[in-house]
Amino acid sequence: LLVTAATIYMSLVGPQGLLNVATASHNNTQNLIKRLTKIRGVTQKFSAPNFHEAVLQFPIDAADVLTALEAQGIIGGLALKSFYPELGNCVLLCATETKTDADIERFGLALESVLLSQRKPLAAASK
Question: Considering only CA atoms, which of 96, 65, 97 is closest in space to residue 80?
Answer without folding.
Answer: 65
